[in-house]
Design brief:
150 residues; Aminopeptidase; single chain; 7 strands; 33% strand; 26% helix
Length: 150
């Protein structure tokens, strides 16, 4: 398995089709943003889409972005669009993507990465700690977690 960054890879069309197979609504929104070349406009110019791949198969993906669905806020960067395909669940593969986000944050000298979610008990196993409740762009309450970068 390897981590591929969507914007710097040479097989964007292939990986875009793999993302399209995600049945989750936010995954479909990510697909739409990428297909329409609006992803970086929506979440920041330096933002990335990280994909854990197994050959030609997409195992898991997430974004490492300047902005997410909590706006406006001074908090940055964000891990978003976290998804693992059903056949690969239960192996903590997303942890490999989180390790990559920490590596990216270290190079940027960032001390904390944030995640907006409604899940409880999912991100804690990757070292994330509940930070606070915030309101997302649709006016809904969201749990915000913080992943501290050493």
């Amino acid at each position: 398995m390897q981590i591929v960054e969507y914007f710097t890879c040479d097989r964007k069309a292939h990986w875009l089709e793999q993302i399209k197979k995600c049945e989750w609504g936010a995954g479909q929104y990510l697909y739409q943003l990428l297909r329409e070349n609006r992803f970086q406009e929506a979440v920041g110019e330096k933002s990335k889409v990280l994909m854990l791949t197994d050959g030609d198969a997409l195992v898991s993906f997430c974004s490492y972005a300047e902005k997410d669905d909590i706006q406006p806020t001074e908090l940055t960067p964000w891990i978003g669009f976290v998804y693992t395909f059903p056949a690969y669940r239960g192996h903590r593969y997303v942890g490999k993507l989180f390790e990559e986000t920490v590596r990216l944050a270290e190079t940027e000298r960032v001390q904390d990465i944030y995640i907006s979610t409604n899940h409880e008990g999912l991100y804690e196993k990757y070292g994330c700690e509940f930070f606070q409740m915030m309101t997302d762009m649709e006016g809904e309450p969201s749990r915000v977690y913080r992943l501290h970068v050493d």
